[in-house]
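anyone seen this seq b4? input:
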Amino acid sequence: MKVKFFQRINTRISLLPMSILLVILIAGGIGFYYFGYARFLQDFHKGYFITLSSEKKTAFDSWFAYHKSDLEGLSRRGALKDNAAILAGVQPGVKLRKKITEQINRSQAVISGELQEKAPAGRYKMLSVISKDGRVISSSRQDILNADWSERDFFKGKAVDLKSAVVIGFYGDNGADYGIEMLTPVFEGSEQIAFIHAVLPVKELAGFLKIERGLYKTGKIDVTDMDGNLLLVKDGMPQKKIRYNLPKNGHDISGYRDKIFFYAVDLRQAPLRLISTADKSDVTRPFNILLIGYCSVVGAVFLMTVIQNSYLAGRVITKPIHRLANAVKSFSFGDMNVDMGKGYKGEFTELKKSIEDMLEELKAREESLRESIRTKEKTRLKSMFFSKMSWEFKEPLNNIIDKIKSVLDAEADPSRKDMLGDIIGAAQNTLRIMDDLIELSRLEEGSFAVSPEEFDMCGMMKEIEDAARNLIGHKEIELIADCHESFADRPVYADRHIVRQILENLVNNAIKTTEAGTITILSSPVLKDGVEYLEASVADTGAGIEPEMLEYIFEELSEQQASVGLAIAKKAADALGGKIDVESTPGKGSVFTVTIPLKAIIYR
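predicted toks r here
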């Protein structure tokens, strides 16, 4: 496996996604700056402006309401009303009698006293009483006494309909006289007889416009008329004429023009507006900081991408995988002692441990395979040795048996004949041992196939019984053989040769371990889980087997084995898919039970 493959994996799982994320972030920043900037900022400042304007509006309305109430209280004074009525009735240019002139002078003095009482307190710059025809009939300023104001804008068509004090605008064009004009009607009963004209100083109102702790450095709040003309700033009269292009809809207005964000609100107590403004650069400062932070994040992502791809990916991903890949490659060539090194982290530690565990498992399997090969080779050599030795022994023994039989046929002495018969029996027993060794070697090599066929079970048991009686010889053993009656009516389908071999070996073992007593051979069909089995048992009353030796009796050539035949019987039963169970009591005998499935063909 080449390292370039892991580099491609790194590109796909880290660099490519990070690059896509970086492009998305850059595109988002550009889109935010060019397309969404104004939209995001559209109402961002509005909350602050609303709060600020509400606070200032309350102060302005309270101030105007106070002075309206003060002027209306002045207009209701009896002395002022009575004397104003006298002065308003005098026609200008008419020569008056001395007594009337004195009355007029007294009335002017009374009104002037009322006005002077208010004006020096600092609440008013100027107080005047105007007749219904527009003449200044009394004033705190003597230079405007008897002036004709009938042509002034506030008096034309407006004063006649007044019911209460109103703000009519700003007075004067220079800093000294600049103030707010208010006009209050004076009634005698329900008849309007005169007006009180007041000019209020703007210093206190200008103080309301000052912002102690504002959100924006360029933020300010000014006063305009309903047409948008600037009338008052925090320092008083504006230095130059400025007109805000605002609609006359009578509602609160929020907007953005000429790089200035503004919010305008109408006053309730005066035909004026408060307008809050702030430069775009000031309003957008938080968003600029956010944009800088955003760009910093983008830059950090870009830097992380570069570092991750150039350094971390190589050290954390590619290098460990390269080392592990080389280790696995060495394992494949048979080098099981490769050191995979240290410094693995995270999942690579688990991967390394898994590879090490796999290596240990491979070593164990290799050793097990080698041991299995050695064992099989030993078994093969042993089987070959037994087979050759058996054939080497069988031929001389057969010659001996034939010669002894010839001598036996010619011998007339009974004692000699018995002795020769015993010799022939011993030789035949030796031949059977040789046959057992050959059969055992075949079973161990697996060089035989099971060949099932139909056969007579009871007939086969009769043959086993006859062979057993010959083998018992002079031992005082009672042999009992019982074949189940169901086997008399139908044949059994199994490998006849192997079944007989199993039973013969079990019977031979019983004869070998029993000097006197009883050997019982039984066979019967058994049905288990819908499968028919042949169950045959061989019971003896011989020496029995110690409990701790039971697990060794079927091992070939073991010290605890009763005979080679038991090993052959066990392997043969296994070949047919069956099993052998044993129960034994030392000194009382043993019972071997073999269970073999019928109608089963098993190939070894």
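Residues 360-447 form one domain. The longest strand covers residues 516-528. kinda curious what u guys think
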